[in-house]
Fold:
Amino acid sequence: MKFFRNLIVLLAFPAAALYFTNPDESDFKEFLTLYVQDELADNVPGETELGRKFRKGLGQLASAAAGPLAKREDLRFASIYTMEIAGERHAFVGVAGQFFPLKKH
Structure:
């Protein structure tokens, strides 16, 4: 009996931690801003100050568009966000307050 009680406690703590750290839409918008900026930075060697400002602006635009474009599937312990942009489907998994991009489809 003691074993089962300890097992339940051992499993309940990580489950509760994942539940309470499941990122929401505002977290996704913040992540998307930085993600777009980072993706664009990889493609621009020797970037100028104007280029950095332009990249920052594009990241903010992507964040603003994320609301109506992104679809959230709430799994209670994690969330899956999908967006279709220019015919490409992008998916991101949000778990424990972090986001991880999945392969583009």
